[in-house]
From TrEMBL:
CDD domains, sorted: MtLigD_Pol_like
Domain DNA ligase D polymerase, chain residue ranges per copy: 28-287
Protein name: Bifunctional non-homologous end joining protein LigD
PANTHER family recorded: BIFUNCTIONAL NON-HOMOLOGOUS END JOINING PROTEIN LIGD (PTHR42705:SF2)
Gene3D superfamilies, per the entry: DNA primase, PRIM domain
Pfam families, per the entry: LigD_Prim-Pol
Lineage summary: Bacteria, Bacillati, Actinomycetota, Actinomycetes, Streptosporangiales
Domain of life: Bacteria
Organism this protein belongs to: Nonomuraea jiangxiensis
Length: 290
């Protein structure tokens, strides 16, 4: 069934609203659209101006998915797009028309496409669609089993101090999966991947039993891999407040440092969509710029 709606003056047609996309929890497409609509005031500032990559799950999280960078041909004309070069594209394309979610109608449009996960780079485009220098630095902390987010929190606290000594204020969030990320506003003092790699290697040298800075799977069991490479301009990271396509409708959730310091069990930092809406109502945007 298709349902015509108006969102901030834009006409959209929503479809299959009763389709269950998280089967273990009975979480429907209607609930996904509702979540993204309600979280939009704090989510959109983190998406605005950033070229979008989505993971779409038309038949739910237990079924086949696909990454999508190029805005679909049927995308409404009012959804902002930017044509950007993609050197080395696996599909031999010289450029891609990326969607940029600047407003609520655009966000709802993508939610209706079952774009559960929203991924963006650490840079934005200007009003003309030209790429700007990176404005964000990110460290992705990925635990190698049996390590969990508990170990990531310990590493995050050390990394926070290293960044503070460099004049950078770190902001933590869960990945919504098994790890977490630290972000900081970036002033382009040097190439961000080079800078992040140096700090990751420093921690790996100082704490070799807990931290690894190389991508080799063999090196990671029981340790926290600090992935510095997501600062590469061609890469993306899951956006704050994005859903994740797990068994449960978990969310990449901004954290308070007190929560990072107090974390004793992995379950302490697992938040679903309803939890995050309640957190925002109580605390506002914990990922607001420092």
């Amino acid at each position: 069934m298709k349902v015509p709606v108006k969102v901030d003056g834009r006409e959209l047609t929503l479809s299959n609203l009763d389709k269950v996309l998280y089967p273990d929890f009975g979480f429907t497409k209607a609930e996904i659209i509702d979540y993204y609509s309600r979280i939009a005031p704090v989510l959109l500032p983190h998406l605005r101006g950033r070229p979008l990559t989505v993971k779409r799950y038309p038949n739910g999280v237990g079924s086949q998915f696909f990454f999508e960078k190029n805005a679909p041909e049927h995308t409404p004309g009012w959804v902002r797009r930017a044509r950007l070069p993609v050197p080395g594209s696996t599909k031999n394309r010289e450029s891609i028309d990326f969607a940029i979610l600047d407003d609520l109608p655009s966000l709802v449009y993508y939610a209706n496409l079952a774009a559960l996960e929203l991924h963006v780079p650490q840079w934005r485009v200007d009003d003309d669609g030209a790429a700007l220098p990176p404005d964000t630095l990110v460290f992705d902390l990925d635990p190698g089993p049996p390590a969990t987010i508990v170990e990531c929190c310990r590493v995050a606290l050390v990394l926070r101090e290293l960044l503070a000594a460099e004049g950078l204020t770190a902001r933590p969030k869960t990945s919504g999966n098994k790890g977490m990320q630290l972000y900081a506003d970036w002033d382009c003092r040097e190439e961000p991947s080079v800078y992040a790699k140096r700090l990751a290697q420093l921690l790996a040298k100082e704490q070799p039993a807990e931290v690894v800075s190389v991508m080799s799977k063999k090196a990671r069991p029981g340790k926290v891999f600090i992935d510095w490479s997501q600062n590469n301009p061609a890469k993306t990271t899951v956006a704050p407040y994005s859903l994740r396509a797990r068994e449960r409708p978990t969310v990449s959730t901004p954290l308070m440092w007190e929560e990072v310091e107090a974390c004793e069990r992995a379950e302490d930092l697992v938040f679903e969509a309803h939890d995050v809406l309640a957190r925002v109502e109580k605390h506002g945007d914990l990922f607001g710029r420092a």
